[in-house]
Specification:
It is a single chain. This protein has two domains: 177 residues, Collagenase (Catalytic Domain), CATH 3.40.390; 155 residues, no CATH class. Helix content is 54%, strand content 13%. The chain contains 13 helices and eight strands. Strands 1, 2, 3, 4, 5, 6, 7 and 8 form an eight-stranded mixed sheet that branches. The longest helix has 37 residues. 43% of the residues are buried.
Length: 369
């Protein structure tokens, strides 16, 4: 017998994003479909209501998952939610392995570390959150839904990021843990994904303009043409890597993007933040380099006549000579781009730092509406 809408029990799920940057975007997309997924995966005879909100702009760094769950439990009580779920971009660890998720039946709350899910975070969250809600309600002995018909360890077979489950199963305190090696690799990839390298790339527009200016000047210098012809592929590769490394180092030092351990930031967390920042900037500068290389190669082909290049090189010119010319000029121009990066807006550049969270914009807490 199908229950009427008025007689169906209601369960309210609070979906909290902290900090309200990348996690908020994932939460907003998840909320639109979470009620349907809960009806499909947990119980179709329940009216699932999903609320959303955010936590502090920057979550407490020194407390790990326990601090997040404590904050989440207080928020759940204040808002009268039945279960609270937290999505965070904070990289968390337990027993020196990446922590993917954690549930607490006593607090009726669960948290998910988005970076630990790797590259396809939204798809993974869609799969894991309904199971976490089911597990919390089952472990809390909520009579409105049937008990979950699966053991906690089975989540590892449904979510690639989860390697094993640890914790006090009888007390409903469970930790879903990634593997030591592939889990760390996935965590770093997920951190770069959460850090939005496209934003860092767009934010370094003046760097790219400065590099193009340096490249345009170098194109008119036939000494550079001769240097490119004289240097072999190995030396050109070394010059390129040195230029990119110097640029990333300059960005980090000039804009104070390096996290230092302190009372609020444990050494391991600061190390992960610095890895995330370095990899994000490396990816952004590498893409900038490719754009610069392609632009320089096209400009060289348009501006430098083959006869002029042959006269300078004193041999027949080949298409690869234009690519070699673009290669050395792009490598040298990245140094000039570093000067341009000093003119960038400080707020724009600092957005590339993993531990930096700007004031939220465009996403609001429901309780403030």
């Amino acid at each position: 017998m199908i229950q009427t809408e008025q007689h169906r029990p209601e369960i309210v799920i609070g979906l909290v994003a902290t900090p309200p940057d990348h996690p908020a975007r994932v939460a907003a997309r998840l909320r639109a479909e979470l009620a349907d997924r809960l009806a499909e995966r947990v119980d179709a005879d329940v009216r699932w209501t999903v609320r959303e909100g955010w936590g502090d702009v920057a979550p407490r760094r020194d407390g790990g998952a326990e601090a997040l769950l404590d904050d989440l439990a207080r928020r759940r009580t204040e808002e009268a939610w039945d279960v609270a779920i937290c999505l965070t971009d904070l990289p968390l660890h337990t027993v020196r392995m990446p922590l993917v998720a954690q549930t607490s039946a006593q607090r009726r709350a669960a948290m998910v570390s988005l970076p630990a899910l790797g590259l396809r975070q939204l798809q993974a969250v869609r799969a894991v959150v309904p199971d976490l809600v089911s597990r919390v309600l089952t472990d809390a002995a909520d009579q409105r839904v049937p008990p979950a018909g699966w053991a906690p360890a089975e989540l590892a077979s449904r979510v690639t990021a989860v390697h094993r489950v640890d914790g006090e199963g009888d007390a409903g305190e469970l930790r879903y843990i990634a593997s030591r090696l592939t889990g760390r690799v996935r965590l770093l990839i997920g951190m770069v994904r959460a850090n939005r390298p496209g934003r860092a790339l767009l934010g370094l527009s003046k760097l790219l303009v400065g590099a193009f200016g340096t490249a345009a000047f170098a194109l008119t210098t036939n000494t550079i043409w001769q240097m490119g012809d004289a240097l072999g592929g190995l030396r050109l590769t070394v010059i390129m890597l040195l230029g990119l490394t110097a640029l990333v180092a300059w960005l980090i030092i000039a804009h104070d993007l390096w996290e230092k351990p302190d009372q609020q930031t444990p050494a391991e967390l600061a190390r992960m933040f610095n890895w995330g920042t370095t990899l994000t900037l490396t990816l952004a500068t590498a893409v900038s380099y490719v754009v610069l290389f392609v632009g320089t190669a096209l400009a060289a082909a348009l501006l430098i006549d083959t006869s002029v290049l042959e006269q300078t090189l004193q041999r027949p010119a080949r298409a690869t000579d234009y690519l070699t010319l673009a290669w050395i000029i792009s490598s040298l121009a990245t140094v000039g781009g570093a000067i341009g990066s000093g003119l960038e807006d400080e707020e724009t550049v600092r957005a590339a730092a993993y531990g930096y969270h700007p004031e939220p914009d465009g996403w609001h807490d429901e309780k403030d509406r």
